Predict the 3D structure of the following.
Amino acid sequence: MSGAIWVLNGPNLNRLGKREPEIYGRTTLAEVEAMCRAEAGDFPLVFRQTNSESELIGWIHEAIDEGAAGVVINPAAFTFYSMAVMDALKMVPCPLIELHISNVHKREEIYHHSLVSPVATAVMAGLGARGYRLAVRALIEMAGD
């Protein structure tokens, strides 16, 4: 889908609303997708989630090949240890927003060093599920610049 906003989600995000709601809230991934689509309006949007590192990398390559207007990625655990995801994201030529539902900097030390942040255009963390809506809005505005 040429010129689309791509929203990519990593492992365990399919469990949103059930997994540690005190950290991630009660909003489900289906609700997050609906929120993103509502925010995008007529702007094309691709929304995907995987628990597989290789599948996520394939989608990053697909977004590049399809000429994505922007990418929002919540790499989840891959944020902190996947050099392969980082290397794929280095190739993204459009605006790239790294997104985390929780404020990773207020959490345990293991969550403090992102391999993705140095290659991202912007980083959003701690805004809960509403961060996705804001990230989509930001990329649409960037696409208009």
